[in-house]
Specification:
Blueprint: H1 5-11, E1 26-28, E2 35-39, E3 42-45, H2 46-64, H3 70-75, H4 78-98, H5 105-113, H6 127-136, H7 141-162, H8 169-180, E4 182-190, H9 203-212, E5 222-230, H10 232-236, H11 243-252, E6 258-259, E7 262-270, H12 273-284, H13 289-295, H14 300-303, E8 304-309, H15 316-322, E9 334-335, E10 340-349, E11 352-353, H16 356-388, H17 393-399, E12 405-410, H18 432-437, E13 447-448, E14 454-463, H19 474-502, H20 507-513, E15 519-524, H21 535-541, E16 549-553, E17 560-569, H22 578-607, E18 609-612, H23 613-620
Parallel strand pairs: 1-18
Antiparallel strand pairs: 2-3, 2-18, 4-15, 4-17, 5-12, 5-14, 6-11, 7-8, 7-10, 9-10, 13-14, 16-17
């Protein structure tokens, strides 16, 4: 539950999705669409939920590296999870306000600056990194700090509710058995070759199959879109700079094109200058650096500062001394800002400064990108003004000398009529979801692109979903029909094999008669897969008792596997092992979630929760509307 700040940046909440608003008091079917849900005297508006849903969908897209449509997000329950999370947070915030729980500015600042997610190479808080991460997550600094304050206050309440939960021993041991149990099997695999030759379907067979499975071949809804992308990279390509300006930029930012000198540095710190002087005398007398450190209870690991450049050292006196030593040399006592230290340099990596000719292209790229970023906000405002005046996206692009892109047809999965993914869509930004919740001729909100930039779009036309004729999809129907015949034959064959084994034959005997090869696999665990046994097959293996035989699907729908469980082993449980500690944390977390879920349910029951299904449908782009 107590996630770090970076997780909160991307999840927006302290509370996991498992805590859901069970027992919603009233499912409204009114015509009002201004809100999605209410709890007490607070409400979640349609626009607020739509924005959160779109943000969460885009975050998911970035995590998996491909666009996720609104329909796909709803299919995995993202809308329900988000609604549960938002209602949970509102209930907890209401309770913390009642209890007058607060978090001081100083404490909020300390938590943020100490968060490892916002630390630079020096291990200190890096404001540039902080601003970059929260900007990528869609936060302003003020909004992020306010959200952190709410999260930290919720933590106070959650910690009090959950308390110090102890995990029952039986639960820990049961989870250990579940996770560590291993099985061994012998199996045979049947592929399309074992199904024999499948003749071409007759026209009657093909027509009958098509009539029975028309939904599989239904043409999806397509939308024609006009996109206008404004990115620093594209804008940089329109900016021209002279040779003189490039040289001036190179001289002003020469450090950017240089490799700084780095040194491997060791350090012994002393409480007083006198202690440092004594140690220096020991070093002069022949005592090794390691022995001097050992006398002070320091291990070799305690001495290492690491491979650092001069700017990494925050103490100027220490930095100057470290970068004036020769490799292998030891410094005299250095009175630094925080302590008196003795340094040793064990390795030097020389720096390198590249000439203008070597980095000319990089200088041009950096300079034009910097200028493009400066021009971005101005151009964005111009585009917004033109759209507000009534122009469409394509007209605005033409007026401002920009290039709009037309996508003639795209479906909810991001594919064109040829069934292939539409190329060139911006990565990490969900354009499909907003496009399919919009309507023709409606002005849409600008989308922020991952890595900087903006995207405007218009829905120009909608081609409704429709049933296709057999002639349009004949090749696809024939492939499906053939696969169905193969599956039917293999299913009959595996049933016959299982019947023979139940009659007393061994798997080896049946395999020999069918000219199949018996394979063996051991050390199988519930999670994962091995060559020849996909995860779905392993799941069936763990549902089958030792000594029994069963059949399952292979890697492809047209493959079948017949297996026998030959052995089941469970490694002994060691309560002091790292695995046991992790299991203990997992079980305690699960019990904590359960207690917190009950607590939130009671809070919501006391406050009263209502859901407007029409508003939810509108916010998530669901076509279904309740009557």
């Amino acid at each position: 539950l107590l996630r770090d700040s970076l997780t909160i940046v991307f999840s927006g909440s302290l509370i996991p999705f498992a805590v859901m608003p069970w027992g919603i008091g009233d499912i409204l079917r009114s015509t009002g669409r201004t809100w999605v849900a209410k709890i007490g005297d607070q409400e979640i508006s349609v626009e607020e939920f739509r924005q959160q849903f779109n943000d969460r969908t885009q975050q998911l897209s970035r995590q998996i590296g491909r666009p996720v449509t609104a329909e796909q997000a709803r299919a995995i329950g993202l809308d329900s999870q988000l609604l549960g999370q938002m209602l949970t947070e509102m209930a907890l915030d209401h309770r913390t306000a009642q209890m007058r729980l607060v978090m001081s500015d100083a404490e909020v600042a300390r938590r943020i600056t100490e968060d490892p997610a916002f630390q630079g190479l020096s291990g200190k808080f890096d404001r540039n990194r902080f601003e970059q991460l929260i900007r990528q997550a869609g936060y302003t600094e003020a909004r992020f700090i306010a959200e952190q304050r709410r999260v930290l206050v919720r933590r106070q309440l959650v910690s009090a509710v959950i308390g110090d939960i102890q995990a029952p021993k039986v639960s820990i041991e049961s989870l250990h058995r579940f996770q560590s149990e291993q099985r061994a099997v012998e199996y045979v695999a049947l592929d399309p070759a074992q199904a024999g030759a499948v003749p071409s379907p007759t026209p009657e067979q093909l027509s009958q199959y098509f009539d029975e499975h028309k939904l599989l071949f239904r043409a999806p809804e397509y939308r024609k879109l006009v996109l206008l992308l404004l990115t620093p990279e594209e804008l940089a390509g329109t900016i021209d700079v002279s040779e003189d300006v490039l040289k001036q930029s190179y001289e002003a930012h020469k450090a950017r094109y240089s490799k700084p000198e780095k040194r491997q540095i060791e350090q012994i710190s002393f409480q007083t200058p006198e202690d440092a002087a004594k140690a220096a005398a020991q070093l002069t007398g022949g005592t090794s650096f390691e022995d001097v450190a050992k006398e002070r209870g320091l291990s070799p690991k305690d001495l290492e500062l690491g491979l650092m450049q001069k700017s990494d050292l925050v103490d100027p006196a220490v930095a100057d001394a470290a970068f004036s030593l020769k490799a292998g040399a030891t410094s005299p006592p250095i009175k630094g800002r925080f302590a008196t230290v003795i340094l040793r340099v064990t390795k030097i990596e020389p720096g390198e400064t590249k000439s203008f000719a070597e980095v000319k292209d990089q200088v041009r790229n950096d300079l034009t990108l910097d200028r493009a970023k400066e021009e971005m906000s101005k151009l964005r405002d111009k585009i917004e003004d033109e759209l507000a005046s009534g122009l469409r996206v394509e007209e605005v692009a033409g007026k401002l000398g920009l290039k709009a892109r037309v996508i003639d047809a795209i479906d909810r999965s991001g594919r064109g009529p040829d069934g292939k993914p539409v190329a060139g869509l911006p990565q990490g930004t969900d354009i499909i979801g907003p496009a399919f919740t919009s309507a023709v001729g409606v002005e849409n909100d600008v989308l922020q692109l991952r890595g900087g930039g903006y995207l405007w779009f218009d829905v120009v036309a909608v081609t409704p979903a429709r049933e296709q004729t057999l002639d349009e999809v004949k090749d696809r129907v024939e492939v499906r029909w053939r696969d169905a015949q193969i599956v039917s034959r293999l299913t009959a064959k595996t049933t016959a094999i299982l019947d023979k084994i139940k009659g007393g034959a061994s798997l080896a005997d049946v395999a020999a008669a069918e000219r199949l090869t018996v394979k063996r696999a051991s050390g199988l665990k519930r999670r994962g897969e091995v060559d020849g046994l996909p995860s779905r097959a392993i799941a069936d293996v763990f549902r089958t008792p030792k000594g029994e035989t069963a059949a399952t699907e292979g890697k492809e729908p047209t493959e079948r596997i017949v297996f026998r469980v030959t052995d089941i082993t469970v490694p002994p449980f060691d309560p002091g092992s790292p695995e046991a500690k992790q299991i203990d944390e997992t079980v305690r977390g699960a019990f904590g979630d359960g207690i917190l879920g009950e607590y939130v349910t009671r809070l919501q029951a006391d406050l009263g929760v209502s859901l407007n299904q029409r508003g939810l449908n509108q916010a998530t782009g669901t076509s279904q509307v309740d009557n």
